[in-house]
Amino acid sequence: MYYSHFGLNQAPFKITPNTEFFFSGGNRGPILEALIYAITHGEGIIKVTGEVGSGKTMLCHMLPTRLPAHIETVYIANPSVSPEEILHAIAFELQLEVGRAAQRLEVMQALHDFLVKRFAEGKRVVVFVEESQSMPLATLEEIRLLSNLETKNDKLLQIVLFGQPELDDNLRQPNIRQLRERITHSFRLEPLAQGEIREYLMFRMRAAGYRGPDLFSGSVVKRIARTSLGLTRRVNLIADKALLAAFSENTHTLRSKHIEAAVRDSEFSHDAPHGIKPRQLWGGLGLVAAGAVAGIAVYAVFQHIGRDTATTAAITQPNAAPTATQEPGQARAEQPAATAMASRAPARAETTPAVSGTKFAAPVAAASSTTDGADLLESRLKATHQWLTGESQTTLTIQLMGTHDPEQLKDLLNGIRKVIEINKIFVYRTVARQKPSLTVLYGSFDNRRAALEALDKLPASLKTNQPILRTVQGIRAEIKQQQAS
Q1: What's the pLDDT band for 217 if we cut at 50, 70, 90?
Q2: What secondary structure does DSSP assign to 433-449, as a single string?
Q3: SS3 of 263, please?
Q4: Interatomic CA distance for residues 31 and 283, integer angstroms
Q5: What is the average pLDDT value for the chain, to the nearest integer?
Q6: Distances in whole angstroms, Cα of residue 193 to Cα of each of 19, 197, 209, 226, 230
Q7: What angle do helix axes 137-146 and 83-93 make, rounded to 10 degrees?
Q8: SS3 394
Q9: Is the dihedral of CA 18, 24, 26, 31 positive or negative?
Q10: Per-residue pLDDT tens digits for 250-267
Q11: Is 431 helix (H, G, I), strand (E, B) or coil?
Q12: From residue 464, how far is each of 305, 357, 442 by CA, in Å?
């Protein structure tokens, strides 16, 4: 796409939480350091809140890279579970030998014994719970009881709750006040200010390999700021589309019309998130008005891309640049970065698939490729159903990515099968952020060591989403929960 045009070696504004693009401005750096301190010093329950797209998941991904080696992390991807299931979920992630039918006290005892053993070895365990605003109050109360697991002087289990502002609303309920009082540290990710957005934009460009002058003028940054409301995911989406619009005109100068074109094509252009008011953040300036955008035609953008065959990299090229995508994993999956622009593209097969931040580029294909992709997706869905039915509950697999867009996944599967054996790929339907989603898994492993070795040997292009280990039992429980709801 536009990467070579701007001298980039990778996508600067993909929404996958790539830790290489962690921006320490906007108080993100100090919050990360404070989180590391609180976790390493065993300080009770920790809470991190922020609006959708404010950077919570990036923080969650940064923590394992910065925490000391003696701290073991557990990631809870689907918090919408019952109190009994949350205990089992943690036990399964820790690979404890606890049967599905085990009673609560049995699971709690197994957890306690495991944590005491880890503590004796000089190790600590911390549980990250994302989207915790979706956790039932009874499950939150079970989380509080887990915080009671301790020695005479130290907590055996650290818990970090990541959630949207609604989490604070839940914690204000009288029947959950005991948990609220256990929260020793509370952090809030605020939207970026206009000056911070300018720094953020150029930081991402430099991190992606850009070496030219500042592309974002004061007026351009101002328009991005008041439309994005300072939310980093929105900033990424607008900037990505604006660069694409400038590329379509063969210019290196970003103008207001490019930003307006990007905003007009964004689902959030008139949507203010929970608790954020444009007047409070941007001095009373309204959202960018939707008007005629001279010289920007989405059709022309993709015509230009279709003619420029040099922008479509081969599937095996290690430096093929990824497009902006959603976050990996089931509960971590965000809305894909493919937008209405892509839906209006005249030839889908000519564009790079915008799924999960991988570096796969779809080769220019005949019209039959879509049908092949559809058949491939259906075959993997059926194979996954059989696999989940027959496998042991302790079998491990690697969760590669998730997407809300089946069409994008069809293209992606055609790319994946060129680098790994497609029979080892499994796909199942679930729900992420209240939307139908598809989660992609790789492999079937009897033990954690084998799974970790396979994870280490994955192609670099499949590691960009920070793959995680999952158990068959955990996946079955997730599917069952979604079916029940």
Answers
A1: very high
A2: TTEEEEEEEEEEESSHH
A3: helix
A4: 26
A5: 76
A6: 22, 6, 25, 10, 6
A7: 50
A8: coil
A9: positive
A10: 998 999 999 999 998 877
A11: strand
A12: 24, 7, 15
Phi, psi angle pair for 61, to nearest 5°: -80, -30
Report CA torsion sign: 335, 293, 278, 206: positive
Dist CA 241 CA 256 (whole Å): 12
Length of the chain measured in residues: 485
Helix axes of 256-264 and 218-228: crossing angle, nearest 10 degrees = 20
Pair 322, 338: CB distance under 8 Å: no
State the Cα–Cα distance between residues 221 and 426, nearest whole angstrom.
42
What is the model's pLDDT at position 268?
Answer: 65
Residue from 78, 30, 350, 359 nearest 189 by CA? 30
* Pair 167, 54: CB distance under 8 Å: no
**DSSP code for 190:** P
Give the integer Cα–Cα distance in Å for 283 and 276. Answer: 13
CA distances for 48 relative to 37, 59, 160, 458, angstroms: 14, 9, 7, 32
Q: Please state, in angstroms and as integers, the Cα–Cα distance from residue 82 to each residue in 89, 235, 340, 452, 483, following that order.
A: 10, 36, 37, 29, 14
**What is the side-by-side order of every strand in the sheet holding 157-163?**
71-76, 124-129, 157-163, 45-50, 183-189
Q: Tell me the mean pLDDT in the region 109-136.
A: 90
Closest CA to 461 of 361, 385, 352: 361
Tell me the whole-structure pTM to 2 decimals: 0.57
Instruction: For residue 205, give Cα distances in angstroms to 114, 229, 235.
Output: 45, 20, 13
Six-digit token string for 179: 């948990």
SS3 234: helix
| Three-state secondary-structure class, residue 313 | coil
Q: Which two tokens stand for residue 367?
A: 């019209």
Q: Parallel, antiparallel, or unpaired: how do β-strands 425-432 and 124-129 relate?
A: unpaired
Tokens encoding 96: 């404890």
345-355 pLDDT tens trace: 333 333 333 33
CA 393/CA 265 separation, integer angstroms: 44
Is the C-alpha dihedral spanning 228, 232, 236, 242 positive or negative?
positive
Cross-strand partners of 128: 75, 160
Where do the domains of the chain lie, and which CATH numbers do they carry?
28-189 (3.40.50.300), 192-296 (1.10.8), 313-485 (3.30.70.1070)
Q: Give the residue from 235, 290, 287 showing the smallest Cα distance to 261.
A: 290
